[in-house]
């Protein structure tokens, strides 16, 4: 310890050692230490920025999309006058069906005027313009209800009808009085009335089941649009992907991992698989368009075609993860099976495959999740631009008749001009992400539950 | 007989073959399974496979081949009357629709074959329209004749199909049953067939690549027949118009693609790389346990979400900052969709790619290198900069190339966030467009696949495929070589 200088001697008596004191950090060390701190803080900053982006993304999704799950409804007591809806009074469904939605409009208008009068609100809006606070879909809704139960005719029935998208937007803070200045659909006077009616309890926001289960609506009725039909389209597509990609992927992986000899063909297949995994998804869309629609004349916009394209796209992913799962089964299992007289095929199908199954399923679920969120190939095979307003009639129809899919529906809404559809798009994203989250969760749980360490 | 009925009959024959062959083998062995070479079920499976395999294969081939062959045989009828500039595929589609309508009418007994032959072509269109069959153009004499010929030929084809497929199935089943003797090595036969199925599944990867390449090449050649290749590759204007006289130069699109990709990489590479370094070298196990999955969540989010984020959140935000009257007062940005918007959001999407690949690669650098450097007195950051990163550099370059290929092929973000105008501009706040965005816009909707404006999408796809493939091959080669170095 003799090298340690003490502070007792004066610097003049004892010349400082050449390298300086070990207790006093010299300038160079300080600089190096500062560089060290700086470098580390770059790392922390990068990580923080990455996480901040994630948080910003999630915040944007939630803050914009959660409002899609509530919807404004107006409580209306509509007098279903017999002389308007069923002139002969014999409740013949064919005759009642002849009354179009135009026949219902005056009834709704009367009900609204009546509501305003009953609540004792005075407004200088003309009676005709009053219905602008209601959705165009209101008449169709009431008509459907009447067609379903013709006995309602002649009574005054209480309906909950959709408010128009601008009223809905006003209650959600999307539409303000200033933004209405140039809007010919609604005036500030309407908003005053809405406020008053809300006070009176005739207008209220409720949870929007129709958004989750409903069908898409035309451009002018964003308040009616739902993602239910597109969800069904996605479901049929995922069924195709599952039915095709799981067996094909497993078969291909078994061959490559267990049987393939080391030769040119095997190399070619391996190179192909790793390259296909990195081919842009839009190229698969081109393939689907050229092969399935142009060449094989399969129906456009059908979930079957979408499923086929997504199958080709997810196969490489599934093959790669399945091979990893097969590889993780130790050779001793195979050797033991072969030792008691099983053929190689029996060793694989009876022992290796069941042991690798959890890993294979995990990989397949993750592949499906990737396929579920994929949009670009669907644009090319015509799953966009098609307005999915009807549920398919049956299972075969579900595969073959035109439909949309969740991501395609979101894209469709994002392209429309009315900002009310943006809210639907964000809401659709929340639904999509809930599905993805659930699938990933299942995959993680599967792995946790069945993963085996050999 | 419809194909599904034929398939069902074939399966029934196969099931019968299974039962018979199994019984026969067991009978020959006097009901003692151990006298057989294989387990009894294998004998059954042999017969079932012999019956169903070739027959179903033939059915599939027939289904693809018959329309092509019929089309070839019917075309001569139409060819003579085809007007100048008529599209053969559309004419054939009309013929097929008419044939389907006539067949329906004959099946339901409203029309006899002779009556259809005698029907004047002018009336056919109205008759069909009344039955819900819409025809593109007026029915000419040639169309009617072609439709009738189509009907006759496909009737013959369908009959031939049923006979050939079912005959093959019966023959296969008989052969399989006749081979079911105790000394027949049934298991080996079944396993050979299974192996064939496995190889077939593995070959689908090659078939997919082949399908992509053929689909692109044929349509690209078709495009270059209609539009000069030199103008496509070196043209600086992109203004398609379906009316004709469009200029389809790829350069503005390539520039937009590159510009957006460069901005994306400028965002993703530093953030991803530093995050990877921190996670691999500094972070405590607990931090790593939650930070890594969080970053990887960014990779699991579908691109449509990023697209919407660009269009509705990032774009308006950037306009507020850089737009006219924005708080920076610069006025550089005209609208929300711009190169910057798309590039920034794409950068966010690419962060997890760069970070998790780099993380793996940094972790693969042997610990001995670090220990040696630290032992010599280097600080950790000096070790990282001067030892770990140089050792990991090839792998990191590979990761960046993979990220670049992702960026070039990304579609939804640019479709929603980058704008639609094709221009050669240096301003990153201008709206520009990319190769992928234009593929989408040229091919969506009911495009007529014979116009250069639609076919150009295939040439664009070809360019995209070649660029990304080259990047991937190089990147994978680098990564693989690097891995070998330390193994």
From TrEMBL, chain A:
Any one Gene Ontology cellular component term annotated for this protein: plasma membrane
Keyword annotations from UniProtKB, A to Z: Cell membrane, Membrane, Transmembrane, Transmembrane helix, Transport
Domain ABC transmembrane type-1 span(s) in chain numbering: 231-443
InterPro entries: DUF3333, MetI-like, MetI-like_sf, Phosphate_PstA
Subcellular location: Cell inner membrane; Cell membrane
Residue ranges of the TM segments: 41-62, 227-256, 276-298, 304-326, 352-373, 425-446
Stretches for region Disordered: 1-21
Cross-referenced PROSITE patterns: ABC_TM1
Record's bilayer topology term: Multi-pass membrane protein
GO MF assignments: phosphate transmembrane transporter activity
PANTHER family: PHOSPHATE TRANSPORT SYSTEM PERMEASE PROTEIN PSTA, PHOSPHATE TRANSPORT SYSTEM PERMEASE PROTEIN PSTA-RELATED
Protein's name in the database: Phosphate transport system permease protein PstA
Organism, as annotated: Limimaricola hongkongensis DSM 17492
From TrEMBL, chain B:
GO-annotated molecular function: phosphate transmembrane transporter activity
Superkingdom of origin organism: Bacteria
Residue stretches making up the ABC transmembrane type-1 domain: 254-475
Membrane topology annotation: Multi-pass membrane protein
SUPFAM superfamilies: MetI-like
Role according to the record: Part of the binding-protein-dependent transport system for phosphate; probably responsible for the translocation of the substrate across the membrane.
Entry similarity comment: Belongs to the binding-protein-dependent transport system permease family. CysTW subfamily.
UniProt name for this protein: Phosphate transport system permease protein
């Amino acid at each position: 310890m003799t090298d340690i200088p003490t502070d007792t001697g004066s610097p003049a008596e004892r010349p400082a050692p050449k390298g300086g004191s070990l207790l006093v950090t010299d300038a160079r060390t300080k600089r190096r230490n500062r560089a060290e701190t700086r470098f580390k803080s770059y790392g922390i900053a990068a990580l923080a920025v990455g996480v901040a982006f994630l948080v910003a993304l999630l915040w944007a999704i939630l803050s914009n999309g959660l409002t899609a799950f509530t919807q404004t409804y107006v409580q209306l007591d509509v007098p279903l006058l017999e002389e308007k809806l069923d002139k002969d009074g014999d409740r013949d469904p064919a005759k009642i069906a002849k009354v179009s939605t135009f026949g219902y409009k005056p009834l709704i208008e009367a009900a609204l005027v009546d509501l305003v009068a009953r609540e004792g609100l005075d407004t200088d809006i003309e009676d005709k313009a009053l219905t602008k606070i209601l959705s165009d879909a209101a008449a169709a809704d009431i008509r459907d209800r009447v067609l379903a139960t013709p006995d309602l005719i002649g009574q005054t029935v209480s309906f909950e009808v959709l408010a128009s998208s601008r009223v809905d937007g006003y209650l959600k803070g999307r539409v303000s009085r200033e933004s209405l200045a140039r809007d010919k659909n609604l005036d500030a006077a309407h908003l005053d009335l809405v406020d008053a009616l809300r006070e009176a309890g005739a207008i209220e926001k409720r949870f929007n089941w129709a958004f989750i289960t409903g069908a898409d609506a035309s451009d002018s009725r964003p308040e009616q649009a739902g993602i239910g039909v597109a969800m069904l389209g996605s479901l049929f597509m995922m069924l195709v992907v599952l039915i095709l990609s799981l067996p094909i992927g497993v078969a291909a992986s078994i061959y490559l991992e267990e049987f393939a000899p080391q030769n040119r063909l095997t190399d070619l297949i391996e190179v192909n698989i790793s390259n296909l995994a990195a081919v842009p998804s839009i190229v698969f869309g081109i393939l689907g368009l050229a092969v399935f629609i142009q060449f094989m004349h399969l129906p456009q916009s059908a979930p079957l075609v979408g499923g086929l394209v997504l199958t080709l796209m997810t196969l490489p992913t599934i093959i790669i993860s399945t091979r990893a799962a097969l590889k993780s089964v130790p050779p001793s299992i195979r050797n033991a099976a072969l030792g008691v007289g099983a053929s190689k095929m029996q060793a694989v199908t009876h022992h290796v495959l069941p042991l690798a199954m959890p890993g294979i399923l995990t990989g397949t679920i993750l592949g499906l999740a990737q396929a579920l969120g994929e949009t670009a190939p669907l644009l090319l095979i015509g799953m966009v631009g098609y307005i999915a307003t009807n549920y398919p009639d049956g299972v075969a129809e579900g595969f073959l008749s035109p439909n949309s899919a969740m991501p395609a529906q979101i894209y469709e809404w994002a392209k429309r001009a009315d900002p009310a559809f943006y809210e639907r798009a964000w809401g659709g994203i929340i639904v999509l992400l809930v599905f993805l989250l659930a699938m990933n969760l299942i995959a993680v749980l599967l792995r946790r539950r069945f993963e085996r360490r050999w | 007989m419809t194909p599904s009925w034929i398939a069902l009959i074939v399966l029934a024959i196969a099931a019968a073959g299974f039962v018979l062959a199994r019984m026969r083998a067991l009978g020959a062995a006097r009901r003692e399974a151990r006298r057989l070479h294989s387990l009894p079920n294998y004998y059954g499976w042999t017969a079932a496979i012999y019956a169903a395999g070739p027959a179903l294969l033939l059915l599939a081939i027939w289904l693809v081949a018959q329309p092509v062959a019929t089309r070839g045989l019917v075309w001569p009828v139409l060819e003579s009357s085809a007007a100048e500039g008529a599209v053969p595929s559309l004419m054939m589609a009309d013929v097929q629709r008419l044939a389907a309508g006539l067949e329906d009418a004959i099946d339901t007994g409203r029309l006899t074959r002779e009556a259809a032959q005698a029907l004047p072509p002018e009336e056919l269109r109205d008759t069909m329209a009344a039955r819900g069959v819409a025809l593109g153009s007026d029915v000419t004499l040639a169309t009617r004749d072609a439709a009738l010929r189509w009907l006759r030929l496909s009737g013959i084809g369908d009959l031939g199909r049923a006979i050939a497929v079912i005959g093959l199935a019966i023959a296969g089943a008989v052969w399989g049953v006749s081979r079911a003797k105790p000394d027949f090595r049934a298991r080996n036969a079944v396993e050979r067939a299974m192996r064939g199925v496995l190889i077939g599944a593995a070959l689908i990867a090659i078939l997919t690549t082949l399908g992509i390449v053929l689909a692109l090449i044929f349509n690209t050649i078709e495009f270059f027949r209609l539009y000069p290749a030199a103008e496509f590759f070196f043209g600086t204007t992109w203004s398609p118009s379906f009316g004709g006289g469009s200029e389809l130069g790829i350069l503005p699109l390539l520039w937009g693609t590159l510009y957006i990709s460069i901005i994306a990489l400028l965002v993703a590479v530093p953030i991803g790389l530093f995050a990877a370094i921190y996670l691999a070298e500094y972070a405590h196990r607990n931090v790593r346990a939650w930070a890594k999955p969080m970053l990887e969540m960014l990779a699991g989010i579908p691109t449509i979400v990023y697209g919407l984020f660009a269009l509705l959140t990032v774009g308006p935000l950037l306009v507020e900052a850089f737009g006219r009257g924005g708080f920076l007062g610069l006025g550089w940005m005209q609208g929300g969709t711009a190169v910057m918007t798309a590039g920034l959001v794409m950068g966010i999407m690419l962060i997890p790619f760069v970070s998790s690949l780099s993380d793996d690669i940094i972790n693969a650098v042997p610990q001995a290198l670090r220990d040696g450097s630290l032992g010599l007195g280097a600080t950790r950051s000096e070790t990282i900069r001067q030892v770990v990163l140089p050792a990991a550099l090839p792998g990191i370059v590979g990761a960046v190339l993979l990220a670049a290929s992702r960026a070039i092929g990304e579609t939804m973000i640019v479709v929603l966030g980058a704008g639609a105008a094709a221009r050669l501009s240096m301003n990153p706040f201008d709206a520009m467009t990319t190769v992928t965005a234009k593929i989408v816009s040229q091919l969506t909707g009911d495009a007529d696949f014979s116009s250069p404006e639609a076919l150009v999408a295939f040439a664009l796809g070809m360019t995209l495929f070649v660029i990304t493939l080259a990047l991937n091959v190089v990147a994978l080669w680098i990564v693989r070589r690097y891995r070998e170095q330390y193994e």
